[in-house]
Amino acid sequence: MNAEPQKIEDAAPVSAIPPEELEAFTAKLVAALKTVYDPEIPVDIYELGLIYKVDVADNKDVAVDMTLTAPGCPVAGEMPEMVRTALQGVEGIGVVTVNMTFDPPWTPERMSEEARLELNMF
Q1: Domains plus CATH for the chain?
Q2: Residues 22-39: tens digit of each pLDDT
Q3: Cβ-Cβ contacts under 8 Å for 18 (sequence gap 6 or more)
Q4: Which of 104, 50, 119, 58 is nearest to 82 (CA)?
Q5: Residues 49, 118: contact at Cβ < 8 Å?
Q6: Fewest C-beta in 10 Å: which of 6, 27, 85, 110?
Q7: Per-residue DSSP letters for 44-102?
């Protein structure tokens, strides 16, 4: 069997945070994100699929890529601060950065099954 050796740049990044600790920390981040609601929709932003990515650095700085249901959303200016404030309540967290993106645009397909049930979208 001639398998090519894996290149270092192809390897998944390895965290300095032990896996169990990273899993517990991630669960706390998700719980915090689930406390933030779009004021016009009775579902939290995590279940709505507005959170595209959460990166945790080795020092527990957190970067979040998120979107809104529509670029003209009335809370566009407030939502990143709401997310930042919710995450800053997580014990041990470092600096929180929230990046707003509209690429790809949000669609209802991004919603979780829980959100679809809540909004009777089945």
Answers
A1: 18-108 (3.30.300.130)
A2: 999 999 999 999 999 988
A3: none
A4: 50
A5: no
A6: 6
A7: BHHHHT-EEEEEE-TT--EEEEE--SSTT-TTTTTHHHHHHHHHHTSTT---EEEEE--
DSSP code, position 39: T
pLDDT digits (tens, 9 = 90+) for 65-76: 999 988 887 777
In angstroms, how far is the first alpha carbon of the chain from the final one?
49
Question: The tokens of 12 are what?
Answer: 């998944």
Prediction pTM value: 0.83
- Whole-angstrom distance, CA of residue 45 vs CA of residue 110: 11
Q: Which two tokens stand for residue 112?
A: 């979780």
Cβ burial of 1 (10 Å; 0-12, 13-18, 19+) is exposed
